[in-house]
Design goal:
Distance between the termini of chain A: 43 Å
Number of helices of chain A: 14
Number of strands of chain A: 0
Radius of gyration of chain B: 24 Å
Helix content of chain B: 25-40%
CATH architecture of the largest domain in chain A: Orthogonal Bundle
Largest interface: A-B, 19 and 25 residues
Keywords (chain A): Membrane, Sulfate transport, Transmembrane, Transmembrane helix, Transport
Structural class of chain A: mainly alpha
CATH class of the largest domain in chain A: Mainly Alpha
Largest sheet of chain A: none
CATH superfamily of the largest domain in chain A: MetI-like
Largest sheet of chain B: 6 strands, mixed
Protein name (chain A): Molybdate ABC transporter permease subunit
Subcellular location (chain A): Cell membrane; Membrane
Organism (chain A): Methanospirillum stamsii
Shape of chain B: globular
Family (chain A): Belongs to the binding-protein-dependent transport system permease family.
Order of helices and strands of chain B: EEEHEEEHHHEHEHEEHHEEEEEEEEHEE
Strand content of chain B: 25-35%
Oligomer: heterodimer
Structural class of chain B: alpha+beta
Number of strands of chain B: 20
Number of helices of chain B: 9
């Protein structure tokens, strides 16, 4: 006999969600508890990992700023205006989310390495192939859709009428956006920046193809993890992984805590 | 003051068709119409949020059709307030003056002055979200008025408020208009707002202004079937109110109608719902204060109810149920007695 106090569907599905949660926690604990605390500390403070932290922070902060400068205006246009080809633009701009990062990296490598435009940039001293600049380009390309999507939905949630009113109170179009819409989009903007930055720190595939995995040169935390793993240096690899895990947890917390209504 | 000439705009869902409108300085114009009539889009086009497809907008002799909203000095208040949530009430009210780069001392002075006029000076430090609907709308009105606009546009400013707050703010709007003499265009679908606020009323339908004039004239002499059925108001009478023996008497074309409510000694509109008027062959002895004798001029049978028009010197409409009418057994041209209570006479 079935009993409404004891639905098997409820129990089975809740059980499934707990199983998944448990699985994730086990994996994370396995990584961080593998080496002793002292070994972990020594590895994290080693010059190579310090370099990787520095490289990761630098590239991810710059790529996040680029995403803000380019994706926020684009998101505004997609939220506010209707124009020819908007549907196609929307669909294509989401593409990097689904595209395997290695494919994106290959495209970037061909763009900066073989085209006239890439060569012209190289002649001006902006070399992207096998340099930290390449890492920034990879992070930007793979992660701007996060910034774009969150900001687009944030702008869409703010009624155009706020800007209308601001304009009747003497604002130009730009002032209305600057003094009203952007402050109102604050929490969405903050959440989008944190997610874009965290994704940038973890970017591996696209960066691997365009910037290579060169120790002491294009060695970010994921690259350090990969390089040390391939030459059996488990403790160093785990120390890089641990830092990535911490960044992931903190940024996810910030996103959920301060992200407000923003959704990916 | 403001003149629109054959203004047209097609926004798909909403449309504006050849709207020609003349607004005189200091007047309070109320535009009323069903949902989707294009009322909001008319205001938004006048404010300059989008260019019209054709037509012209002239303000004080100057063609402003294509100049940006910021240079028009036309302010807008929406139904849902649109206060900037990241700013305090004071910063909201001072927003426009700050944009005009006025000095902070002056902004502060003007803001407080305006807040006092709208009785929200005790709320200046608060964020909009902590205010009640009525308070938020007062703040939004203050934010517009402080700009000393050439024209103030109100888009259903009272529709989001509950009954009592609405009545209060409506009276307030009248008072503020009397004090500031600002030219107002007010959109609504509420008839009371027309009668208590409007110098003139315009009726809008399907993107067009179908009739414009003073409220009495428009409601008494609708120019089309649509207006008649849209206004749908029977028994609207203009008269002067005075107190007699603790009850108010309204003098309408020489006839006295008694009402339980009165707003002081002045010109008022009185309405009586047709179903509140009782018809009888002989005079009825009852506590009802109003009793008239008249002649039936028209009988309309629409199945469910019978609508009877009686001339008692002024035309009065009564609605009866089919059974009530059958019992009465009367025909056009016959004499009939009308009875209704003082509490059935609504005054505004």
């Amino acid at each position: 006999m079935s009993d409404i106090r004891n639905s098997w569907l409820r129990n089975a599905t809740i059980g499934m969600s707990f199983l998944l949660t448990f699985f994730i926690i086990v994996l994370l604990l396995l990584i961080v508890t593998k080496p002793s605390f002292e070994t972990l500390y020594t590895s994290i403070t080693s010059p190579e990992i310090q370099f990787a932290i520095f490289m990761s922070l630098g590239t991810s902060i710059i790529s996040t700023i680029l995403c803000i400068l380019i994706a926020v205006p684009a998101a505004y246009a997609l939220a506010r205006y209707s124009f020819f080809g908007k549907g196609a633009v929307n669909a294509i701009l989401d593409m990097p989310l689904a595209l395997p990062p290695l494919v994106a990296g290959l495209g970037l490598l061909l763009f900066f390495g073989t085209t006239g435009f890439g060569n012209a940039l190289a002649d001006m001293g902006l070399v992207f192939v096998f340099t930290p600049l390449g890492i920034i380009a990879a992070q930007f390309f793979v992660n701007f859709p996060y910034m774009l999507r969150i900001m687009r939905s944030t702008f869409e949630s703010i009624s155009t009428r706020y800007e209308f009113v601001a304009k009747t109170l003497g604002c130009t179009d730009l002032q209305a956006v600057w003094r009203v819409t952007l402050p109102m989009a604050g929490s969405g903007f903050f959440a989008a920046s944190v997610i874009t930055w965290a994704k940038g720190i973890g970017e591996f595939g696209a960066a691997l193809l365009i910037a290579g995995a060169i120790q002491w040169k294009t060695e970010t935390l994921p690259i350090a993890l990969f390089l040390n793993m391939s030459c059996g240096n488990l403790n160093m690899a785990i120390s890089a992984a641990t830092i990535l895990i911490i960044i992931c947890i903190v940024s996810l917390y910030i996103f959920e805590r301060y992200g407000g209504a923003s959704r990916l | 003051m403001l003149h629109t000439e054959n203004l047209s705009k097609d926004m798909g869902e909403f449309i504006l068709r050849n709207v020609t409108l003349d607004i005189t300085p200091g007047e309070y114009l109320v535009i009323i119409g069903p949902t989707g009539a294009g009322k909001t889009i008319l205001l938004e086009t006048i404010a300059g949020f989008y260019p019209p497809d054709s037509g012209k907008i002239i303000m004080d002799g100057r063609d402003i059709t294509n100049i940006p909203p910021k240079d028009r000095n036309i302010c807008m208040v929406y139904q849902d307030y649109m206060l900037f949530p990241h700013l305090t009430v004071e910063e909201n009210i001072g927003f426009g003056l700050k944009t005009r780069k006025k000095d902070p001392e002056y902004i502060r002075k003007k803001t407080v002055e305006m807040a006092r006029l709208l009785s929200i000076d005790h709320l200046l430090h608060r964020k909009p979200e902590t205010l009640s609907g009525g308070e938020q709308q007062r703040a939004a009105i203050a934010r517009s008025l402080v700009m000393e606009p050439n024209l103030l546009l109100l888009d259903e400013p009272l529709s989001a408020l509950d009954g009592q707050t609405r009545d209060k703010l409506r009276t307030e709007l009248r008072r503020i208009h009397d004090i500031t003499n600002v030219t107002v265009v007010h959109i609504t679908h509420n008839f009371e707002e027309v009668f208590s606020l409007a110098d003139r009323v315009a009726i809008m339908n399907k993107g067009e202004i179908v009739q414009i004039g003073n409220p009495d004239e428009v409601f008494r002499k609708p120019e089309s079937e649509f207006i008649a059925s849209f206004t749908g108001m029977e028994n609207i009478f203009k008269g002067s109110c005075s107190h007699q023996d603790g009850i108010s008497a309204i003098k309408i074309d020489g006839h006295i109608v008694y009402s339980a409510t009165c707003l002081g000694e002045r010109e008022v509109y009185a309405t009586i719902r047709p179903e509140d008027i009782l018809l009888s062959k002989d005079p009825i002895v009852s506590s009802a204060r109003n009793s008239f004798k008249g002649r039936i001029t028209d009988i309309k049978n629409n199945g469910m109810v019978i609508k009877v028009t009686i001339d008692v010197g002024i035309p009065v409409v009564s609605i009866m149920t089919r059974r009530g009418w059958d019992e009465l057994q009367m025909n056009e041209g016959e004499e009939v007695y009308l009875t209704f209570k003082a509490s059935a006479v609504h005054v505004f």
